[in-house]
Amino acid sequence: MWQWVAREGGRCYHLCVLALAGVGACAPRPAPLAPEELPAIPRAEVSEWVDGYVPDHPTRYELRWRYETQKGEARGRAVVRFVPPDSVRFDYRAPFGRSGAAVVVGDDVLWAEPEEQAGGFVAVASLFWAALGMPRQPPDDAAVSGRMTDSTRVWRYVRGLDTLTYLAVEGLSGTLAAEMVRGKELLGTAEVELTGSTDEPQKATMLFPSEATIVLFTVQAIEPLTSMAEDIWRRP
Length: 236
Prior knowledge:
By secondary structure, this protein is of the alpha+beta class. It is built from four helices and twelve strands.
């Protein structure tokens, strides 16, 4: 299903995502992003790969989003404000005057308001980062493995019960995919299409199989900033 090395794989992924939303949590588990066994790789090498995706300056992203569950769907607009190296303020607007916000720092959601709605967008922080086109740096206490070919890189962090795997495909229309597993449970996946020249995100899909939930982003604009106001981190 998820063979991005074969370029038609991205299309198959989206079809399987939509099928999963219709059948719920009893759907078959998707095939993993990468083989179970990957060779150990120097942490510094993976860190260098990750650095190439993360902006070194504050950045504002304007998004259109769609949130789908078995109960229905909602859509609207959102603004993501990123401050390097690892902080994001996420604000969204939905139909009927609804709105919400969340702050993510590293792998932690500091707050989400309202929690039951905004929290759904950032349910697994590492996947939210991947959907923005920014893989996470390897944790200090994680086992790191991976490998690289001419056009693909796959790498994995194993930390306690958590396994986070990334697959990056380079090219004119590159992709970055992530998969988060806790124990034997697949928590979720993310895939983002990137521009070939700058690796900026274009559109992304996050899937949470246990809840049959899909979150889709389309990036409308990206604006580099020189600074960010301190009060954006405060809870409303």
